[in-house]
Write a structure and sequence with these properties.
With 88 residues, this protein is mainly α. The chain is 43% helix and 5% strand. It has helices spanning 12-28, 43-52, 77-87, and strands at residues 56-57, 63-64.
């Protein structure tokens, strides 16, 4: 008699892990100039991402997993515009 552990490709956590990995990969490879900028994200979301590895979403809609020094890049013009509108 076989068990789910004997056939890991037929459902279970292995399938979920592959599906999650595919979704994260799709989210991290959005087209456009977003990679050239630093983006505005809620501070608590950045901390959560650092703890869990989950991607964050910037004000402009870009999704990615933070991992570079934002001081080395100019601020995203769209994030800046949205942020300024929020402050009013």
């Amino acid at each position: 008699m076989s068990t789910p552990l004997d056939t890991p490709d037929h459902g279970g956590t292995a399938t979920l892990d592959r599906e999650l990995e595919k979704l994260l990969e799709e989210e991290l490879h959005e087209p456009g100039d977003h990679e050239r900028f630093s983006h505005y994200v809620q501070k608590d979301k950045i901390l959560e991402s650092a703890m869990t590895g989950k991607p964050v979403r910037a004000l402009c809609g870009k999704k990615w997993t933070p991992g570079r020094d934002p001081e080395k890049f100019p601020v995203c013009p769209e994030c800046k515009k949205i942020y300024e509108q929020l402050k009013k």
